[in-house]
Amino acid sequence: MSGNGRKGKILVIGGGISGITAAVEASEAGREVVLVERNPYLGGHVAQMNQYFPKLCPPSCGLELNVRRFKTSPRIRCLTLAEVESISGGPGNYHAVIRRNPRFVNDKCTACGACADVCPVERPDAYNFGMSSTKAAYLPYDMAYPLQFAIDGSVCRGSECGECVSACAYGAIELDMKPETVEVDVQAVIWATGWDPFDAGKIAGLGFGVHPNVVTNMMMERFAAVDGPTGGKIQRPSDQKGIESVAFVQCAGSRDENYLKHCSGVCCLASLKQARYVREQYPDAEVYVFYIDIRAPGRLEDFFVASQQDSKLRLVKGKVAKITEDAAGDLEVVAEDTLSGQQVKQKVNLVVLATGLVPANGRPVQMDGGLQKDEHGFMTVTQPMGGMFAAGCAKRPTDVATSVRDATGVVAKALHFCGE
Ligand SMILES: Cc1cc2nc3c(=O)[nH]c(=O)nc-3n(C[C@H](O)[C@H](O)[C@H](O)COP(=O)(O)OP(=O)(O)OC[C@H]3O[C@@H](n4cnc5c(N)ncnc54)[C@H](O)[C@@H]3O)c2cc1C
Questions:
Q1: What is the CATH number that goes with domain 199-357?
Q2: What average pLDDT does range 280-290 have in this prediction?
Q3: Which of 218, 260, 332, 336 is packed most tightly, with the most Cβ within 10 A?
Q4: Domain 9-101+179-194+360-417, architecture per CATH
């Protein structure tokens, strides 16, 4: 079914690399776009990476390019701190109700930081997975877009305190800001809600949340990043010591009947990339990668082959059954090496769990127009021209380049549906 003939809007839900790409492509093709992002900033998980495989460039390079296009587009309305509450209507004529949570900081903000300087309240920093803290008045991260502070209303003392209001020379703080409801009529909807990390604490025997020196792959991205909790130094969380040995545990949750049946697609490459982070800082460190199969599709195979040149990187084919920690904080990783048939017990200083990707869970919202969720919760297209489309990791775990290509292709379909 085609749209209603007029050049209506497109709603993009999710402002990660897939959603940004979709919004920019649709707007550059002449469409009005409303982009809804639940975080106070755009970029999704890519904004939390230290480097991207395969080129190992900082994520700011790919993101920045798209954000620049985004900023200069007159046709995109960007709603951060927002989620879609309901969608009614049907293909070509959707009505979306969006809840926008208060930022408590208006557009006059220059990101000078005076509000945070005087703010007396500390809160765990979700951007760094709680490994550092920010003030209740915080800038999500240094390169954030929009480059504006936000105030965490769940911990701010409001007008009882009001230090930030007095400190802000620009009149940017509005502690009485209220949630807003925004309603939009759109022709098509693109879901680009991406993924969340699987909760590693649910995996029996691997000790996440019990042993401090067992961390996840996303935490490792933040450790390695210069704007991360350790200023870019990879060290043991328990005692801040350097690393002599590290084990990467693949398929932590993924490809496991008890947790996630699906392959999370990017974790093998992510661990091989992180092995390079370790090597850069610790030329002599022993690196072990415990894997079921290494999945490096297409040209990413070259990255795998290059990683194998590292003489101190050992690939052990075997699923890890158990991790224990001794009094000194060292860990013992127990696995069966399926090639030799021997049980391996490897002592290391740090374990990185290659935690899988699960579909991002937002509010349950009506979904029709040819989209459904598959058995893993990812979106699947049942009718290619139905009015609702999905892009990037909302459909399946995948890498950045594929997400960008996918989002661009999805926009072509949406434009066609809208009668372009
Ligand atoms: C440890 C690790 C390392 C990785 N390293 C690399 C790498 O080096 N190179 C590479 O190519 N890929 C890498 N990836 C994969 C990469 O993270 C994904 O390809 C990328 O995040 C996909 O982008 P996306 O926009 O589809 O999803 P996301 O990045 O998850 O973005 C989705 C956005 O939607 C928002 N959202 C979700 N639900 C809602 C809702 N209901 N309402 C409003 N907004 C919502 C989220 O807040 C988020 O901003 C890595 C993955 C992992 C786990």
A1: 3.50.50.60
A2: 98
A3: 260
A4: 3-Layer(bba) Sandwich (3.50)
